[in-house]
Amino acid sequence: EQYLPRTNYIPQGVTIDYGKSIKAFIINKDGNGKPVYDDWLEYFKVGFRKMLDVNTERTLIGAILPSKSSHIHGVISLIFNKINHLIEFQGLCSSIILDFFIKTIGAANLSDGRINSFPLGVNEKYKPQLFSRTLQLNCLNKYYAPLWNESWQEAFAHDQWSKADIRQKSFATLTPEWQWSTPLRNWYERRQALVEIDVITAMALGLTLDELILIYNVQFPVLQQNEDDTWYDTKGNIVFTCSKGLTGVGLDRKEWEQIRELPVGQTYEHTITKSELYHGKKITYHAPFDKCDRVEDYRVAWEHFEKIFNN
Question: Nearest 10 degrees: CA dihedral of 194, 196, 197, 199?
């Protein structure tokens, strides 16, 4: 709950005026910027990995950074005057739609000029579902509690997944006050939230279902490969994945091949050895194991949200 990521970089000269010493810019619609020094450190930010690689699963990689946090120049971040704009922006940028846009540019770095061309200001009817999933993906510990509490909407508790699965927690469990159970914590439901954000974003930006599927099939071969060989247990844990971005998650292939046909109700205990963060932790996998079909999930989610938004 109070976890902070390790860093090799230690800020120097930290005094009461440290936050005001950080150089930030307001970017206008014409792309010109003017420097500001107005408590940048106090804002929640949307931060992106600045270096881009079109050959990986995802090219546009970002998250909401907590207030009172800083970063080196390997990250580019944005602050917003309105919290709603921050959440909407992060939600849209979590989708493969914006990722597709960045992939087609073929740039090596993410600049403020390119970020300035991103959309913002979708129709209000899309926001409760987009905000709920975005916040639950990002508000992982107590340092995000102010963001969750300020952004709470009663509509969050009345939301529904596009498909029923016991591995997904009910939206009805959400409360106005952040708690440990607020964010999505198992791999299966976090993936489903991203799938649904793809659909909501596509609808909000005027794309069709066929166009969304085409974007996925043409521009995301690594994501397709990983989707086709990532297996989940009945608790939402990843038992095996071929994803090179998830080193230490799940079993090695040899071990996986030995247990993949475990019958219903059987369990297998695994000790994590290849993760710096979770080294030595024991995890129990619950059979049977299955994988997901992203295109089919897009179709199901599209039908689900089409009914909601049309009403």
Answer: 130
Q: Read off φ and ψ for residue 114, nearest 5 degrees.
A: -70, -40
Which residue type, as a one-letter code, is found at position 178? Answer: W
Phi/psi region, residue 13 (left: phi>0; alpha: psi -120 to 50; beta: rest), is left
Q: Count of CB atoms within 10 A of residue 34's CB? A: 8
Q: Which H or E run contains 284?
A: strand 282-286
Pair type for strands 267-271 and 282-286: antiparallel
What is the C-alpha to C-alpha distance for residues 233 and 141, in angstroms, rounded to an integer?
25
pLDDT at 7: 84
| Tokens 């080193």 sit on residue | 247
Please state the separation of Cα 82 from the chain's center in Å.
20
Token code pair at residue 286: 């619950």
Burial class (CB in 10 A: 0-12, 13-18, 19+), 85: middle
Residue 82: Cβ within 10 Å count: 8
Backbone angles phi, psi at 247, to 5 degrees: -60, 130
Tell me the torsion sign for CA atoms 292, 296, 301, 307.
negative
> Six-digit token pair at 239?
């038992």
The dihedral over CA atoms of 144, 147, 151, 154, expressed in degrees to the nearest 10, equals: 30
As given in the structure block, the two tokens for residue 183 are: 């964010």
Q: What is the pTM of this model?
A: 0.94
Over the stretch 42-78, which tens digit does the pLDDT of each residue have? 899 999 999 999 999 999 999 999 998 888 889 999 9
